[in-house]
Amino acid sequence: MSSDKLPSIPPAGKSGLPAPEQWVTLSSPPAPADQIQHGIERYVHSILRNKLLVLGLTLLGGVAGYFSSAFRPETYRGRVTVELQGVNESFLNINQIDPQAGSDLYSSSQVNVQTQLQIILSDSLRRRTLARLERETVPVLDPGGGILNRTRDFIGLRDENPVAATQAATRMANATLRAAVIKNTRLIEISCESTHPKISADFVNTLADEYIDQALEMRLNSLQKTNKWLTGQLEEVRAKLVESEERVQQHMRKSGAVSGGLSEARLQKLQTDLSMAQTERIEKQARFESARRASPELLGELLQDGQIRGANQKLADLRREVADLTTTLTPAHSKVKRLQAQIDETARLLARHTADALDRVREDYEAAKRHEALLASAYTSQNRQVSDDSDRATTLNILKRDAEVTRQIYNALLQQVNQTSIATALPTSSARLLDAARPASVPVSPVPMNNAGTGLLLGLLSGIGVVAGRERWLARVFEPGHAAGILNVPELGVIPTAKPAPTSTPRTRFAALQFGEAEPAGGELDGRQLASLHAKPSLLADSFRAALIMLLFEDREGRRPQVITVTSPAPGEGKTTVASNLAIAIASSQRRVLLIDGDFRRPRLQTLFSLPPFDMTGLLRGESSAESVSRAVSATAISNLFVLSTNPLEENPGNLLYGPALRLLIERFRGEYYSIVVDTPPALAVPDARAWARLSDGVILVSRAGQTSEPEIRETAKILHNDGTRIIGTILNDWHAPSRLLGRYTNHYYTA
After folding, report:
1. Which of 133, 210, 437, 725 has its CB 3.0 to 4.6 Å from that of 693, i.e. a possible disulfide?
2. Residue 224 and residue 213: Cα distance in Å, rounded?
3. Residue by residue, what is the 3-state secondary structure of 469-514?
4. 1, 17, 587, 590 from 639: Cα distances, Å
5. What is the dihedral of CA 215, 216, 222, 225, to 10 degrees?
6. Maximum C-alpha span of the chain
7. Distance between CA 568 and CA 575 in Å, rounded?
């Protein structure tokens, strides 16, 4: 910073100047409710003032809506109702012969109803309908009559070719085909729209007929295919049945008659006889064995033989007599000898009788044994005969059973073939036409009165919109004095839209017409934002210098604002342009000026004036010395112009702006500079501008012509008023000055 300084100017309140809080401020703005009421009343008054325009647009909309119907063909709706019916699948056992029975194809369930809807809207059914209509429909013309039809005839919108008109009507009916289920019923409503009432009715009627016929054909085709298949199977089963019966006959001829019952009876009889023979043989064998081992005395009792018993008795008697005689007589006695001779003869007779009895018992045993052997042989032979008969009978039964099964299958197939034949001959459809369509007498669209009513409404809304839009557009600041009149403050200057120099490129010409845009790369001075530097006469420079009258000189009460805050209601309104050029204009009057970049969020002066990076965080915290404060202020290439710039702060700027360090810093700068200009963020976007304004002597409110609105200006003024901040005045930026005000001097003003 240069060491030579102008005389220090004491801060406000120390040199007879009243403090900023004592200056005259803007009168209190209306409350928000009053603003809303005022805005509504303004729009209502504007509509009443332009009631002829609104009425004219309303009538124009109604007429346009009415006659717009002429540009749309009249469409007639045809409607037909079809009832879905379930098929009795138990009739003639159809569920046994129809492969599709039980598949929900013939029922009226919700799933089947939705399926039938898709079938009705299918392309295949539409093609069938179109083909039938093409064969049966006679070409017709659109119905005439009525003002709309006469209008169409007048402007040539109607096709006079019957064939083309019929084809167009049919295509429209096909394109507008609709089908829907009537709620809580099994009824389907089919509808379409067409340019001819007869075509619309014929299309839906034909479609319904084709749908019913298609369903019937599908069912009949299914039954016919089933019947054909069953007939083929019946022939195959018949051939198998004949073959099975032939095998039975061949087996019977080959094996002869099978007397299974007689053979088994004989076998049973032989088995009984054999058992009895075996018993008899065992008894006789036991008797023989006992007799052979028995003594002669027991043999008679065992065999029940009288001769042996008599011989044994006689022999016993003789021996007893001999025993009696031997007690008195000697063995040589004649009586004893005679008795002994009788004993010997009786013994010989007993032995002969015993031998004969044993021979008889042996012969009985041998006879029983031979009889048993014969019966066993006969039983074995008969058993083989029975086994052979059983095998032949089993084979015959198997053949008979196969033949019987084949016969049952044949009878079942024959019954099913007969049933399918009857079912095929008895056509049954799962749908029926309930209400046929009739040609409509009144079109469904367009409805001229409805269109006229819609046109009236749209015309009314358009009129209100035009008036409201015009009022809202006029509510923007366009002309000098508009913003100042709203706030009842002076207008410090008007910055016109720059006119590019003849030597500039189209790109720079476009850029030169804009204010508040981004600076060019490289950090060089931009003619848009530093317009006051031009040495030759410049419309922009002169506009900024005109704003210095209230900033450089004291008013009648001896007041002059030293610290000036430059802000705007919203971004993009040129406040940085105004602040930098005002500082340059003050510096060009040989007064020391400090330009402070008060936008800590998006600082721009550092890039604009090509200054080295600097962080003001330390200064705002009060941690820097006087020397560091002097180093923070950078001299520029413009004489008497100094800039206090900063990098974007990482810390929240609000925590630094409301501290005491910034107030002390501003008080120090008051003693070193003639004027201090602070470039701040938009007042409605962030609260930083309000904090700077409380530390300054007043605020310059910048507005852009055609962009800043009255509500934004009023809201900004309300905020500043509530803070007790004085508005020094307004500056209108980017004003498109009429060429008649510049006249032949227009070419004299260039920005470059």
Report:
1. 725
2. 16
3. HHHHHHCECCCCCHHHHHHCCCEEEEEECCCCCCCCCHHHHHHHCC
4. 11, 28, 7, 8
5. -140
6. 221
7. 6
d(CA 702, CA 548): 15
Q: Does pTM top 0.70 for this prediction?
A: no
CB 522 within 8 A of CB 740: no
Burial category of 709 from C-beta neighbours within 10 Å (exposed 0-12, middle 13-18, buried 19 and up): middle
Per-run averaged pLDDT (10 residues), the chain, 752 residues: 35 36 38 49 71 82 72 82 73 57 58 85 92 84 60 62 83 92 88 89 92 82 78 85 82 63 73 81 76 67 68 76 77 78 79 77 82 82 74 78 85 78 67 86 75 80 75 68 81 73 41 36 43 53 70 72 91 88 88 90 85 78 72 86 85 76 88 91 88 90 84 87 88 76 49 39
Which residue type, as a one-letter code, is found at position 656?
L
Cis status, amide bond into 10, omega within 30 of 0: no
Is residue 181 within 8 Å of 121, Cβ to Cβ?
Answer: no
Gyration radius of the chain over CA positions: 68
Tally of CB atoms within 10 A around 476 = 18
DSSP label of 679:
E
β-strand pairing of 431-435 with 76-84: antiparallel
| Token code pair at residue 640 | 């008497």
CA distances from 22 to 18, 25, 488, 532, 725 (A): 6, 9, 18, 33, 10
71-to-10, 93, 144, 151, 155 alpha-carbon distances in Å: 80, 61, 15, 9, 9
- pLDDT of 487 reads 83
Q: Of 539, 636, 550, which is closest to residue 587 (Cα–Cα)?
A: 636
Angular region, 684: left φ>0, alpha ψ -120 to 50, beta rest: alpha
- Name the helix (H) or strand (E) containing 129: helix 123-136
Of 282, 254, 129, give the one whose Cα is nearest residue 194.
129
Whether 188 and 113 have beta carbons less than 8 Å apart is answered as yes
